TrEMBL record, chains A, B:
Keyword set, alphabetical order: DNA-binding
Pfam annotation, one family: TetR_C_16
Keyword Glycosyltransferase: no
Residues in the DNA-binding region annotation: 39-58
The protein's name: TetR family transcriptional regulator
Domain HTH tetR-type: 16-76
PROSITE patterns, sorted: HTH_TETR_2
InterPro entries to which the protein is assigned, alphabetical: Homeodomain-like_sf (IPR009057), HTH-type_TetR-like_transc_reg (IPR050109), HTH_TetR (IPR001647), Tet_transcr_reg_TetR-rel_C_sf (IPR036271), TetR_C_16 (IPR041678)
PANTHER family: HTH-TYPE TRANSCRIPTIONAL REGULATOR RUTR, TRANSCRIPTIONAL REGULATORY PROTEIN
Lineage of origin: Bacteria, Bacillati, Actinomycetota, Actinomycetes, Pseudonocardiales
Length: 201, 201
């Protein structure tokens, strides 16, 4: 329920206006303050609404970020589901899922726009680093039983960002043409080793 | 010697003008036509000089590209040197060399500007893909003794581009703080497997 005490039937016109105002305020504040320092309270203030209404619409700061940036999926839903069966086979599951999402989104992949922003603008890079850190990397690190769990999660991220860059943006021809099974067989063991293997020099 | 038959002592003022004209013409033509379709003859024509003068100054189209884009190093020199001892230990050699170059260049790394261009502009992405393909990936593929050598070279590229993205541009904190030995131990076996390991599903 919206944070209003007046009785209502159906959706009021004001609701979508408030929702849009919150999303606009979120985009502005995330991109200037970063993900970590942008508070729900400040975003609500910018939008002229009560913080409870933000939580009502979006559930959490991560959910608000996902909606504001038009992420194709919500890591707070997806990552726990991928982690649930345990770390055995997690490398192949992560890579297979990522490739499936990329293939389904095709040219309309909004992640490509986010990579472009992060590469061009330090503020956007910080915002992505902080969001990816909380929404994905900290969750993966918490599931890893080995030494240096957060470094391991970041090693995985470096290979996954590299797949997106090399296959979707640079469009290296054999990577672009390879079928998903070939790529899962190539990248799965890399991710698995970063998660559970020895990293000793 | 420049492509001139007049006797000369020292450097003539005209030399640096012609050299700069060639570099300007090369930048313009590489970025519109791509690396593959931009011919030395066409660039020389744009600059109003003889193609032989271009070869005199820069040795090859790859050398011209390296000079025009202000690459910190010339892959036609560096890659054969890294490949010379053979594929044993090549993964660690490649990663160690890359990290050393990144550390030495620091903030002034012109590769970061090239990654930014490639991410933002399809023409720049094509130019990079074609240059990296001929100057680096084809050379690595030619040294690989296993099946699908070019795919293997592209897998390596995807991890190396990912290291640059994650460590230098996103600045993921544990990757950014890790010492070189830790990163060589993490990434060396990945690159080595892409070059010489089994990729079978």
């Amino acid at each position: 329920m919206p944070a209003t005490e007046s009785p209502r039937r159906g959706r009021r016109p004001g609701d979508s206006g408030a929702r849009d105002a919150i999303l606009g305020a979120a985009r502005a504040r995330f991109s200037t303050a970063g993900f970590r320092d942008a508070t729900v309270r400040a975003i609500a203030g910018d939008a002229g609404v009560d913080p409870a209404l933000v939580m009502h619409y979006f559930g959490s700061k991560q959910g608000l970020f996902v909606a504001a940036m038009e992420f194709p999926l919500d890591p707070s839903q997806v990552v726990p589901r991928l982690l649930a069966p345990g770390v055995d086979g997690l490398g192949e599951r992560l890579v297979g899922f990522l490739l499936q999402v990329i293939d389904e989104l095709g040219e309309a992949n909004p992640m490509l726009g986010l990579v472009r922003s992060a590469v061009g603008h330090p503020d956007a890079a910080r915002m992505m680093r902080e969001f990816l850190g909380e929404a994905i990397l900290d969750r993966i690190a918490a599931a890893v039983q080995a030494d240096r769990p957060r470094l391991r999660a970041e090693l995985c991220a470096s290979q996954i960002v590299g797949v997106i860059m090399a296959r979707q943006i640079l469009a290296l021809p054999e990577l672009a043409a390879a079928d998903r099974a070939t790529l899962v067989a190539a990248y799965g063991p890399t991710i698995q080793r970063y998660l559970t293997g020895s990293l000793a020099p």
